[in-house]
Amino acid sequence: MTPREKFIMALEGKQPPGRVPHFELVFYLTMEAFGRVHPSHRAFGQWSQMSETERQLQRHDIADLYVATARKYEHSAILFHAPGGWRDDSVQETMRTTELIRQLSGDEFMILVHGDYTYSLPNGEHMMEFVEALADRPQEMKDKMDRDIDGGIKIAEAYRQHGAIDGYALCCDYCFNTGPFLSPAMFDEFITPFLKREIQTYRQLGFYTIKHTDGNIMPILDSLISTGPHALHSLDPQGGIDMAEMKRRVGKQVCLIGNVNCGLLDTGTDKQAIESARYALKHGMPGGGYIFSTSNCVYTGMDLRRYDLILDVWRKEGNYPS
Questions:
Q1: How many CA atoms are closer than 13 Å to the CA of 89, on its beta-carbon side?
Q2: What residue ranges do the domains of the chain occupy?
């Protein structure tokens, strides 16, 4: 089976043959791994001034780097991140570049894109403004989210017609390590119905959906499950998320992705990193419906040796019996 086929089996709650599928939301360490700057870190401010020949060379280089990363680290899926300089034409450029990824890799990998239009946890600069708007203009905020989702659905319809993209990673964060930013009641008012409409429409269009949020999701876990994603990511142990408990509570309802502690990969010992990977595999694997991953991504500044270390654990211990 191809990595893409095994990834789909896991998303559908099944147990694929052989090794557990593997995926990272982002692998930023391309300079260390390949001597090449990650596309998200490239300055494309002069994109509009490039000739079409220059642009096509850039697209090919970006596509090639995504495929090289997936093959070297045995990822089953590629999440494409449109560089910032493409903002004015990001939909068309995303379609052009994901088509190149598909041409280079065939059906080897699942290809995912971003597309979450629900309200994410606000940053400190805009937090009070966001809170005041929810309190003073609740219907206005809901109407805006509906409009944003409507726009996202139109983009999804274009992606479906294009045909190179398999699904979405929905990357709006809702939680701190201590719990969700909104109370469960407010979450069910301002997020749950909108997220459900977004996910169900994507699914009706034939896309797979992975809902990502860091932090302690336990107070809103039932609400997240009710929206119907194929998978939950990142199952953050720094937010107190325990893989054994998640498997027991919702492992038959949704695919689980992640739970290998990013903090330990960065500041822990080798032994702690190994044990975190081992724990996630031990409790996530039984019965299928699990994809091996860090609890966020392979981010800038992480020790690549540590990532290689947990991959060694995965290769040795992440295999289903024949």
A1: 10
A2: 3-317
Q: What is the pLDDT along the chain (322 residues), one digit of tens a residue?
A: 999 999 999 999 999 999 999 999 999 999 999 999 999 998 787 888 899 999 999 999 999 999 999 999 999 999 999 887 676 688 999 999 999 999 999 999 999 999 999 999 999 899 999 999 999 999 999 999 999 999 999 999 999 999 999 999 999 999 999 999 999 999 999 999 999 999 999 999 999 999 999 999 999 999 999 999 999 999 999 999 999 999 999 999 999 999 999 999 999 999 999 999 999 999 999 999 999 999 999 999 999 999 999 999 999 999 999 8
- pTM to 2 decimal places: 0.97
Closest CA to 276 of 314, 305, 302, 231: 314
As a whole number of angstroms, the distance between CA 66 and CA 82 comes to: 12
Burial 288-313 (b: 16+ CB within 10 A, else e): bbbbbbbbbbbbeebeeebbebbbeb
Find the length of the chain: 322
319 forms bridges with which residues in the sheet?
A: 19
168 vs 171: CA distance, rounded Å: 9
Enumerate long-range contacts of 182-188, CB under 8 Å, 24 or more apart. 184/219, 184/220, 184/223, 186/134, 187/220, 187/223, 188/223
Tokens 């999701």 appear where? 217
Which of these CATH numbers, 3.20.20.210, 3.40.50.1240, 3.30.70.920, 3.40.50.720, describes 3-317? 3.20.20.210
